[in-house]
């Protein structure tokens, strides 16, 4: 996991947590010509894989632009973002296959300030759009004219004062990326599309759902948000309490991992997804999992893996998965 850092010298946030980035499935323009016969989605902390079967329901070939939207990256939140790779273009190590063969993709990446595309300006100044790994930007190393232009054009925003009273700045642009390809669906035939990538996993070295923290009035709103976003049930909390004990300190060394997955793009087809399966692998037998299953029904549990299924499934919400345990 790569911590995104743009070395401009703005104040560090007092937060050991890393935020997850929402990411999800293939995105098409809404169409009545292609149906999704099945989707088999497997979510783990180190890998997400999806296998789709599409059917062209017409008597002629259908060509669609397939877009895989990578998550937006707001560089003003750089220190709190967890990226799984230091590749500035394909920062989730995304791979795709069509009918078993590798399928090339073109990654379109833009830097935006509000609705303004500032990609050309950054390239003119010979600055990376996504400054990760060896491409970090050190504001103090830039020529004075470049620093002034970045500030004047709104690409660098004031971010407090240094200890010696000097103005500090943070980058103010958002990276928007999408992997795009043209896909032909032959008439009256099924096409299998598979993709896999490394997820952006949010993490915290403790969990506010431990009893000594959960019962704090100061954390009441945050606990309520967790219970709503992850559909945390009383049975989940009871099991967590057994493991955590009543100590104020986190003596059980419990931690959080969080994954977000954009599922609603699966509703752009001719009819619902006829057969849908979700597998969640938390990666350890002692880990607790909570999420909002909606219309999904638990089908089985194999070892530490949880499985859910649905027929004629039309996604109306995205997935937010919480995993608590030792890591």
Automatic annotation (TrEMBL):
Which segments constitute the DUF4424 domain? 14-322
Q: What InterPro entries does the database record attribute to this sequence?
A: DUF4424
Q: Which domain of life is it from?
A: Bacteria
| Protein name as annotated | DUF4424 domain-containing protein
Source organism per entry reads Bradyrhizobium diazoefficiens
> What lineage does UniProt assign to this protein's organism?
Bacteria, Pseudomonadati, Pseudomonadota, Alphaproteobacteria, Hyphomicrobiales
């Amino acid at each position: 996991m790569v911590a995104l850092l743009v070395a401009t010298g703005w104040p560090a946030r007092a937060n050991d947590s890393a935020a997850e980035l929402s990411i999800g499935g293939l995105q098409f323009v809404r169409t009545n010509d292609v149906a999704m016969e099945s989707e088999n989605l497997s979510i783990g902390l180190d890998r997400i894989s999806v296998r789709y079967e599409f059917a062209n329901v017409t008597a002629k070939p259908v060509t669609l632009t397939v877009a895989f939207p990578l998550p937006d990256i707001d560089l003003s939140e750089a220190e709190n973002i967890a990226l799984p790779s230091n590749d500035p273009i394909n920062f989730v190590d995304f791979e795709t296959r069509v009918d078993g063969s590798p399928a090339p993709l073109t990654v379109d990446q833009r830097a935006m300030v509000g609705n303004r595309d500032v990609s050309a300006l950054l390239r003119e100044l010979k600055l990376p759009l996504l400054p990760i790994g060896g491409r970090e930007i050190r504001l103090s190393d830039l020529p004075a004219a470049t620093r002034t232009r970045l500030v004047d054009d709104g690409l660098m925003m004031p971010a407090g004062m240094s200890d010696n009273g000097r103005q500090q700045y943070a980058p103010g642009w958002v990276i928007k990326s999408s992997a795009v390809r043209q896909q032909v669906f032959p008439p009256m035939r099924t096409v299998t599309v598979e993709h896999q990538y490394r997820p952006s996993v949010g993490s915290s070295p403790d969990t506010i759902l431990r009893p000594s923290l959960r019962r704090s009035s100061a954390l009441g709103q945050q606990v309520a948000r967790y219970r709503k976003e992850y559909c945390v049930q009383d049975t989940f909390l009871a099991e967590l309490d057994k493991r955590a004990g009543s100590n104020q300190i986190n003596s059980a060394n419990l931690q959080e991992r969080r994954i977000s997955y954009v599922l609603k793009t699966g509703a752009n087809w001719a009819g619902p997804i006829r057969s849908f399966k979700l597998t969640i692998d938390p990666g350890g037998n002692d880990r607790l999992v909570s999420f909002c299953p909606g219309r999904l029904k638990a089908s089985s549990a194999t070892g530490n893996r949880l499985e859910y299924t649905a027929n004629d499934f039309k996604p109306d919400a995205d997935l937010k998965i919480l995993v608590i345990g030792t890591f």
